[in-house]
Amino acid sequence: MKAVVLSDNRKGFPDIETEHGLSIYLETERHRILLDTGGSDLFLQNASKLNIDLAPVDYVFISHGHNDHMGGLPHFLKINTRAKIIVSPNVMHCSFYSKRNGFHTIGLDFDFSPYQHRLIPIEKEYRIDDEISIFVNISTRFKQPMANQTLFCEGKNHEIIPDDFSHELIFTLTNNERLFVFTGCAHKGLLNILETVKEKLEFPIQWVMGGFHLLDSKNGVDYETEENIAEIANYLNVHYPSSMFITGHCTRDRVFGQLKNMLEDRLTQFFSGYTVQF
Predict the structure, then answer these.
(1) Which of 86, 159, 173, 251 lies at a CB distance of 3.0 to 4.6 Å from 155, suitable for a disulfide?
(2) Does position 272 have pLDDT exceeding 90, yes or no?
(3) Does residue 220 surpass a pLDDT of 80?
(4) Residues 126, 128, 134, CA angle at the centre, nearest 5°?
(5) CA-to-CA distance for 36 and 56, rounded, in angstroms?
(6) Is the overall model pTM greater than 0.85, yes or no?
């Protein structure tokens, strides 16, 4: 199994481009999977430079409805005519907004209707086979990321309401009785996501990859404190001592540095072009 980051905020190679977005190519002996599609067609450009053919991809997973994770979907569908689209029905026909850096839309205006035959809408959970399972988060034990307070969506009566992230999905893959977990942006909270997976599946969580939505406090805007981050890292050390964490995108640099000090070699930062073999 290998994972290649096709789109991320951070640069690792001179000729591999970056954007505010996330897309990861995941390949196993049985499947070729695209985990999110970034914010544009940049993931396609980088895939070409990395000699990755996305035409044979059989599943594209959309973690949630924000444009930086599904903005590239229309571009992907132009070059791939076979992949099933795994998505929450709460993504469709809904608008999403952020008030960080001024109130603005962060959703994708996209018509799913021509692709109904390719959709796998996930309401609670779904097992594609004994390798791939998809879940909606059920754990509320831990606090959600503080930056969620800046995020909104459209209500039933078209009013603007705080986003409850009912559109966020968790992707898991079982490999030799060990679990790979993709967090997307972890808007429901990294610890809640891991708690949900632990409750649903019996195998140990070996790899966790994706954004953790832990932002650096700056310009008078406060998010998680150093104490909050230390609590998260301590919990991971105690309850997931054998898990490897690979993060980027919305896990910002100061937070990453603090987590790294506590998780040490179990934490790695990814970037556009980053490749890992499992």
Answers:
(1) 159
(2) yes
(3) no
(4) 40
(5) 16
(6) yes
What pLDDT, on a 0 to 100 scale, did the predictor assign at position 6?
Answer: 98
Query: Long-range contacts made by residues 73-76, C-beta under 8 angstroms, separation at least 24?
Result: 73/37, 73/108, 73/110, 74/110, 75/37, 75/40, 75/41, 75/44, 76/34, 76/37, 76/43, 76/44
Average pLDDT over residues 187-213: 97
